[in-house]
Amino acid sequence: xxxxxxxxxxxxxxxxxxxxxxMKFEIAQELGxxxxxxxxxxxxxxxDTGSIGxxxxxxxVQMAEQQLAGQYK
Length: 73
Hints:
mainly alpha, globular
């Protein structure tokens, strides 16, 4: 990894940014977690942000499994 780019969170499909943001807000709402409107997550509990990320991952895996099985629309 280069010195200038320390983040490994680069999207393979940059056009997916809006869909992932929407999913983040939907999951946070389902979990009853308020996402800061200013975009600063420093005041959020690590447990809350981790829960959101975990559920996003879980949902993406489910979607991929369904797609592989030919069930995803």
